[in-house]
Amino acid sequence: MTAILLVAGVGRRLGDCHALPKVLLTFDGKTLLERHIEALHANGVTDIVLTVGFDEERIRAAVADIAGVRFVSNDRFREGSMVSLAVQKAALCAGRTILLMDGDVLYGPQMIARLLAAAGENVLLVDRAIEPGDEPVKICFAGQRIVDFRKKPVHPGDWHGESVGFFRLSPAMAAALSATCDAYLAQGVTALEYEEGIRDLILAHPDRFRAEDISDLPWTEIDFETDIVRARDAILPKLAETAA
Fold first, then answer.
1. With the CA atoms of 92, 98, 99 and 101 taken in that order, what torsion angle do they form, in degrees rounded to the nearest 10?
2. pLDDT average, residue stretch 95-99
3. Does residue 223 sit in helix, strand or coil?
4. What are the helix and strand counts (H, E) for the chain?
5. If you classify domain 2-243 with CATH, what class do you get?
6. For position 131, what pLDDT does the model report?
7. 16 band by pLDDT with thresholds 50, 70 and 90
8. Are 125 and 216 in contact (CB under 8 A)?
9. Where are the domains of the chain?
10. CA distances (Å), 183 to each of 25, 76, 186, in order?
11. Coil, strand or helix at 133
12. What share of the chain is helix, strand, coil (3-state, %, to 5)?
C-alpha cells in the first residue's frame, strides 16, 4: 500500500498569516505533515510519497530523517491540483492499493483506520455535518449510491455530505485515475482540481465506489485563518480525548 499526499500548493487563502506551506503549520507542537506520517505509521502504512512544489526544500528538510518518505516534484504547482496528482503516475500505476490524501487536514489515526477497514473496492470518506456554501466538496447520494462529487454538484441526489479529501483506491482504479489525469493534461486542461478526475470515474463506475461515514470523528480542513483557530481551539482537544 502506498499513501500519496498532495502538499504542493501555495495556500493562497491563508493570506499573509502564514508564509510557509500549510503542511508545516504547527498544532500542539507537531506540524500537519508530522501528524500525517504518524497517523499512517500507526496504521501500518510506511510507503509515503509526497507531491511537493511550493517551498519544497523546506518540506523535504522537515521529514528528511523519516524512512519511507519519498518525493515527486511538481514544477507547475501554481496550476490546478490535477497536475499535482498527474505527476504521481509511477505510484498510481505501480499495482498497489493507494491512499490519496489532501495535505491540509488535521485529524487523528482513527480516520486512517476507518478508511482502511471500510468495505468496498474504492472508498471515499464522508462527513454528514457540512457547512452551507460552495467551498466544501460534496459527496451526493441517492440512497447510499454516490451520484455526484463536486463543490457545485450537477446531480444533487437525496442528501449530501462533505468529502474529507481522503480516498482508498484499488490498483486498477488508481491506474484509471492516472489515465484520466493524463487525458485532461493532454487536452491542455490544467486548471482543474484533482477531484474532477475522481468524479469522472465515479460517474462511469458508480458500483465500484462507496463512502464511509466518519461524522463521529474530529477533523478539519485548513483553508482559511479561521480554520487554524478552529483547529487549535476545537479539534485538538477532541483529538486529545480520542487518543487518551
1. 10
2. 98
3. coil
4. 9, 13
5. alpha beta
6. 80
7. low
8. no
9. 2-243
10. 34, 17, 5
11. coil
12. 40, 25, 35
Q: Which residues have a Cβ under 8 Å from the Cβ of 210 and sit 6 or more positions away?
A: 118, 119, 120, 122, 123, 124, 144, 146
Taking residue 72's Cβ as centre, other Cβ atoms within 10 Å add up to 18
**Contact criterion met (CB below 8 Å) for 135 and 151:** yes
Q: Report residue 113: phi and psi, to 5°.
A: -60, -45
DSSP letters, 86-129, are: HTTHHHHTSSS-EEEEESSEE--HHHHHHHHH--SSEEEEEES-
CB-CB contact of 183 with 204 (8 Å)? no
Which residues have C-beta within 8 Å of that of residue 29, sequence separation ≥ 6? none
Taking CA 68 as the corner, what is the angle to CA 213 and CA 37, rounded to the nearest 5 degrees?
40
- CA torsion sign for 70, 76, 81, 87 is negative
CA distance 122 to 173: 8
Buried b (16+ CB within 10 A) or exposed e, 17-38: eeebbbbbbebeeebbbbbbbe
Place of cell 519544497: 56
Taking only the tens place, the pLDDT of each residue in 183-198 is 999 999 999 999 999 9
Which ranges constitute the DSSP H helices of the chain? 32-42, 56-62, 81-86, 89-92, 109-117, 171-186, 195-204, 225-230, 236-243
Written as one letter, the residue type at 172 is A
Q: Please give the Cα distance from 237 to 108 (Å, whole number).
A: 11
pTM: 0.95
From CA 133, how far away is CA 198, in angstroms rounded?
21
C-alpha cell at 77: 504547482
